[in-house]
Amino acid sequence: MVVYENAMIAAAAETTQVADFVAKRQFAPMYIWLDIAFLLVFAGLLLWRRKTMTVLVGLAAGVLYFAVDYGIFNLALHTRSIEGGSMFWVLLWMSMSYGFTNFAWIWLWISKDSHLFEWSLLILGWWFCAPPIVQTLVARFAPDQADHPIIIQRTTGAYHGWMALILFVGYLALIIWNLAHERRSQRVNIPWLLAIGVLVQFGWELGLLIGGIRSAGLGLQETLKPLVVNSLLETNLGMPYVYVIFLAVTARYTETLSKRTHPITMLERLAENNAECVTH
Q1: Could you give the number of structural domains in the chain?
Q2: N or C: which end of the chain has fewer CB within 10 A?
Q3: What are the alphabetically sorted keywords of the record (predicted)?
């Protein structure tokens, strides 16, 4: 009996170890300031193109990211650790950076913006170009930052299961909705949402990985796990809920926050969105 119990405990520990992994970032402080400059440029371009709702969605997402990352992951679950910086300020920047960029980009995708290619190129271009730019500038103007980088990491075992549950429930609801509606115009385009949810996260995970920021100093398996698992799970889990919010808001308001001349129902907005297409 004792042997059996020990075997069960060992198996459970092994399962936990497999499910858990470290998501780590290492970067010079200069990276933060250059990224803030990019965020200001990005937000300015959105406002120039009268994407007021998109900017507000991005800001709200940044606040939500910070509440989850600092409040839950750090304070409640104690999964965060940091070297060389302030946990509060670094997480505030990270949350606003990726929260704003991710969800502004998602909103542009969902709304099938006519300049989606340009917005996507801008965001992906920055994610891929920022690390080597920072490395060059640090080597030239602030070599001490290379010796004293900020290292921040988190483990995932305490919450990825809950994230998976949220993801499953959200997409299950969409599947049931589609099965209950025969007219194609009234069905949610699930492949489109999946593509957005996976590719947005994959884009910045890959950018961080190639730039040497993500999983620096870790082995191949520990490096690839965040890329694959986070891309499938972390941003993607919110897509069904974000889409419902999108339908509810845009059924009554335009991108400039003015009321639609003729407000429509969410079902009508779904059909309208399905009929829209990305043009370039």
Answers
A1: 1
A2: N
A3: Membrane, Transmembrane, Transmembrane helix
